[in-house]
Design a protein that fits this description.
Helix content: over 70%
Radius of gyration: 18 Å
CATH topology: Na+/H+ antiporter like fold
Structural class: mainly alpha
CATH class: Mainly Alpha
Largest sheet: none
CATH architecture: Up-down Bundle
Number of domains: 1
Strand content: under 5%
Number of helices: 13
Order of helices and strands: HHHHHHHHHHHHH
Shape: globular
Length: about 300
Amino acid sequence: MIWILLAIFVATLVGIWAERRWPDRAGPGSRRSLVILLYFVIPPIVFVNLARADFTIGAGVGLVLGLVTVSVVGLVAWLIAVPLLKLSRPVAGAVICCSVTSNTGYLGYPMVLTLMGGDDLGQAVVYDVVVSGTALMLLAFGVGAAFGTKAGVGFRQRLRAFFVKNPLLWAAVLGLLAPRWMAPDILVTTTWVLIALILPIGFFAVGAVLAEEERSGAIRLPPRIHRQVGAVIFSRLFVSPALLFLLAMPFSGVPRSFLLMAAMPAGLNSMIVAHAYGLDLRTTAEAVIYTTAIVVVGAAAWVLIF
């Protein structure tokens, strides 16, 4: 766990330093890395893990509840961002996208392993692939197509952008249809290596985006918590775990790791969606930083106290 936290901290600082040192190369380079992740790195991860996923009855109920939860969270984020705060479309889309995506992979896995043990990790992987994967492929990409500045004009163009710029959806369909033998152990192990690589690349991009915004005079580092980031913190870190806990109360057999996964911070994949569709990268980067910091501090306090 300590290595994950150190990687997050160092990668963010390196991104900030690189943008200040090479302002003409660090920012564009980090954005190109997000495109590479979207089209060449994450799709194989989705395919292999869905082809190997195992489902139990209790886990199945929990997965349905998880999907209901993330959908309601997205609705809550929309209510706050659009009717209440009246944010611009790219900013509102960033708020909703960050609320429905969560860092259940490269942060959720080590947290489950550290706080709950290896027996709970298997179900956590299933939650990550099914709930977080569905939220990313359908909800987050759908939000990007609906609110982004790079998705075209009108319903037809935005619908086309949803499918054309969403390779993860096609990877998921193929993964669900693929026989188990197409995902041998060596490929599963390889996907874990790829997941480990996503973490520093993603937080490097977060640091570079924040440094760009500071250089333009839009923010000061560290950025303050403003209303759109507060909306993400509320919907992602409070509404999500509380709602899943309430929905799971009448049922037995729902894995306890699902509740922890529901409380994970905004996912790095929101940066990928924001870049692909033209959502507000500043809001996205700030939301990722602050929700991650809150969860990390909370987990550290839990370990020290209990």
